[in-house]
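Tokenise the fold.
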Amino acid sequence: MSGPSQPKVTDEVWDDERVRSFLNLKPYDETDEDYHALQNAYEYMRADDFRRFVKFFQTAGRNLHAKNLNGETLLQRIESHEAASDYRDILREATNSA
């Protein structure tokens, strides 16, 4: 199974198994596991895959408000990223529906 260590391919369609595999990622430092999983999903997934991931993440009872070592949630961290508007919308929708 390929996972987050594979090169990024922007037009590849990911199956649910691969998307869910990001739930198992563990940080190498003291970063919160939930934040680490969200951050990696954001960095490696297309918006449609990220939307599916966030649903799996919530179903697993994970924390969308998890913070990095700087005390920021993923949503706070990506507020200024120009290309992140779809990801911000997904996180806002998920937060509001929780």
The chain has a mean pLDDT of 90.
